[in-house]
Amino acid sequence: MSTQPEDPHIGMIRSVEPRTPQGCEDCLRLGSPWVHLRLCLTCGHVGCCDSSPLKHAGAHASESGHPIVRSFEPGEDWQWCYVDRAYV
After folding, report:
1. What is the pLDDT of residue 4?
2. Confidence check: pLDDT of 61 > 60
3. pTM score
4. Domain 12-87 maps to which CATH number in 3.30.1390.10, 3.40.50.2300, 3.30.360.10, 3.30.40.10?
């Protein structure tokens, strides 16, 4: 049985509270729409997904160096690493 190695960025996950639980922090400020939300597991930034017009979650990961997000959609609990482009 083969096992995948653990993502090296797992150590950056913290216990966070969403900074803007009502929606994408940046879209709320700009008045822009979003499709789905992602929660940064390092700082609590709530950003919009890559299917959204402004892709704030990916931009936050790139600019901040915070690689792992969790879906912030009801009923979803998956996590994604932007650096490794893989589920964790």
Report:
1. 57
2. yes
3. 0.92
4. 3.30.40.10
Contact residues for 47 (Cβ-Cβ < 8 A; gap 6+): 24, 25, 26, 37, 38, 40, 56, 57, 58, 59, 60, 69
Question: Alpha helix (H) ranges present in the chain?
Answer: 25-30, 56-64
- The tokens describing 76, both together, are 């979803």
Every domain of the chain and the residues it spans: 12-87
pLDDT digits (tens, 9 = 90+) for 1-13: 444 568 889 999 9
Supply 49's token pair: 């997904």
